[in-house]
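Ticket opened by: R.M.
Priority: normal
Category: complex prediction / small molecule

The reporter submitted a protein together with pyridoxal-5'-phosphate and asked that the result be attached to this ticket for the collaborator who will pick it up next week. Submitted input follows.
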Amino acid sequence: MTGHPAVEPAYDARTVAVRAGRGHNDTALAPVLWSSSAFVADGFDHARQLAGDTTDPKFYGRNSNPTVADFEHAMAELEGAEASRAFASGMGAVSAVVLALCSAGDHIVAQSQLYSHTQVLLQAVCPRFGIDVSFVDGTVPGAFEAAVVPQKTTLVVAESPANPKLALVDLDLLGAIKGPVTVVDSTFATPIAQRPLEYGVDLVVHSATKAIAGHNDAILGVVSGSEELIAWIRGFAILAGATASPFDALNGLRGIRTLPIRVEQQTETATAVAAMLESHPAAKAVFYPGLESHPQYELAQRQLDLPGGLIAFDLAGGLEAAAGFIDRLRLVQRATSLGGPETLVTHPVTTTHAGLLPSELAAAGIEDGTVRISCGLEHEDDLIADLTQALAPFS
Ligand SMILES: *Cc1c(COP(=O)(O)O)cnc(C)c1O
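Result attached by the on-call engineer:
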């Protein structure tokens, strides 16, 4: 932790976001890019000491790096974690958690509503290594706990809000599970809206590619938790090599400074868009944690400080309606990410979730007419006008 004075813990997250992660800045105001892949030791003894310490940011870039370490410290502060480890992507973080903590003969409990590549990793890769996985409906209270096999389940994997329909997992119940390590993919919420560690959950994962870096110009992941668990994950991560690039970590630090105000603005816009969709005859159902009609509205009120910028909805006209709607959009762009300045639309069945079986799609609540929107930072009136004209043929 040397060189990383924590920002005063009493400060609000907005203040922490502006000031955190400057441990290797010297007198520079903005985050500093350290691109060097290796660092020079003072002498024989120093070289020996560096080789035995996996956490020193000034040794070798696959282990750590000053810019990456600054990003990790900023994330740890925002999550209220003892430590964080950054990765080359969100999937780098997810796969390191799974492969660092599970061995042949172990069992994982995961929810059926997951980011598609996390699901494929659990479903297709884990069995090759002798790791069994059970999938449960993450929205059913007690479902995770009921699937835990004593002495065998080592990991419980949750995502909340979950892809793509914003299903929520009760973090109080998840955090109360004893025995296995619990992990939440909190990408959709960001640490501004939700801090799973406060509920007793062991690890929190983010695709920082999304809202945290926030400008669609970095691929980056991070996992936060206790020093003990992160040390274990770090040890595996150094061998697996999915190390965060200092350039992407710099963009992560750049993004964190404006993360709170971006999430607030995206929430405001998404609230207006969700209300418009809910009153539109073409949308037979709208899923947004800020809407009273969300099936878990009370839980959303309890554990999300902000409902965020993502909305899903089902078009009554199915696949054809979704294709027509998406083709007619002029301002909203067809791209697969989320959480950035540009408002983006995806059609899960034919893109992000195209690899899933019909039964798996049904378990995740994904229909042919399901559309996901990530609200960006454009003016809300312009977005609503674009969405409305694209929906017009159905009115
Ligand atoms: C994008 C995403 C991931 C994967 O992150 P990458 O940075 O693309 O590897 C994992 N989980 C969620 C919820 C995501 O949205």
